[in-house]
Amino acid sequence: MTNKNESIGSNQVSFNRDQVIVQEKNNNEIGYKRLVLMWGLILLGYFLFVVQWYSISNFSGGYGKNIGSISNAALNAMPNWTITLMRGVGSVLAGWLMVKIGHKYSVITVLSLMVLSFPFIIFASISGIGNPTPDGSGGEYYPVNFGMFLFWRLFLAIGGTTLITYTNSVIAKMPVAERPKYLRINQFGFNGGALFANIFFCFGISKVINGGDAWIYILSAFVVLIAILLVMYLIFGKEVVPVQRSLNKNAGNITDANELTFGKVLKQSYTWKMSTIFIVWLVAVVFINSGSMRNVIEQSPANFKALVEWNWLNQESLKTIVNGEAKYSWADAMAKSTLSTNSSVVVGSGYEWVWPTFICMFVSGFFVGLFIIAPFNKTIYKRKFFIHLMFAIGYVFAFMSLMIGYFGGYNNKVALAFFLIFIFISGIFLWSVQPVLLTLYQQCPQASPKYAGIIAGLIWGIGYVGYTVVELLLSVALSYANPFPFAGNIKSVMDALVQANTDGSLTANPSLIFGNSTYMSLAKSTETAGAIIVWIGFAIVCGLVFLPIQMLPPAGIKDKDGNFIPFTKTWKPWEWNFKKKEILIQ
Question: What angle do CA 517, 521, 527 make, to 5 degrees?
């Protein structure tokens, strides 16, 4: 028997996979194949939630006429941060719910909530109710449609995000050596869903989907698929964490003082250290592709210039004759103040693909890191230095990408190429470190199926609430800290340029567009206080991750006798082969 205080060497602790499966099957009457099926159904439900989440944003061109055309950055961010807030609430609820009604019926409950969210599609597809309300930034929206659209999506958020936390209890029932593999694949739920939802918009199909009713049928199909998953889990789901029962004594109901409870896990310092890391990680990987960050990048001086140049070069295609007078599309009220959305002033400009591609490149980095970085969680290496380095490298490439997009502009092909390449490299490191992070609570002394289910919910819940606070503060700063009327100034510049060209004071040479100091000063004024606050705030929050990582206790595993053995093998930065038998958890 291995001593409790011994450290793991090359292959000191060995676990027989078949013995573990047979033992667990005898004790819990759940076979390995059934566990994999349950895990797969839950993960597929989460995948569909993520596809819904991103699709709702991408389909705004379809339902915008019913919800309203919103230019205000804070209101624009509201559909996203209400989702993340309820993701936080739902994740905390997940642990509590599992303690009260057990794992199986918790999964059934949250799948039911996702199905019950369907009215959000109805309010997005019917004509605006009542009179529109100005958003304070040149747009307007219908309060009833917009409010009901947000309200019913809350059920989708609570149910959808909770599902991924419930995979942890199923995985914790699997053999020790198998768990890291499924925790790595878990990441496919978010990254695969985000990639699937955005990749089609990289090829200009937004007009096809949003031009008619196709978006309604697509969103409805997702609800139907989730309903099918609900029925399947009712049939095939088994209980992996029974309901917490009290001990009946003569004196009344007395609970076991040593029994693990939601409250006990909540009070542990380890829970809050992990939650803090997760808050920062979410800011790094979610806020970076949010609407607020898109506004910062696309309302830069370089992209102001790119937008004016494109409109200038394509003014004839944007012109219509009304009562013998030329009218241009930029003269209409613009729905969005960014370049790459299908409802912006640059519809058809060729820029619509940029931001969906940016998101796809970022999230798809994980599928490279899945084979290069994520397998680290199966090794017996110490964790801290590796996690520190992955965050540091990911940050360097992320900030280089964002700076290039900001200062280079979308019309600079070289800058645009590096903008996308660097964010892909950043995604390899930032996304692929998550499976390593989320294996930690499976590799701590108190690890168990019940503990994994409770702490996973708390980490995700606290993490998403914290993330929501950050996004809300930064989006408000972007909206109200010396805001710049980006779309309105595009209109003013273009009207002035067209008039000047009509008068013969300008040539059609696009290189002369910004020769006038007036136009240059307008471009420069796009650098607002709000954008600067977003840059600084984002950088500060990202940097906060290193302290709680350093404060984490050592990770390890339990041997067959239940003794916890910490990992002590040191990882070297040039050692990237994580498949060698002597360094794997056996």
Answer: 160
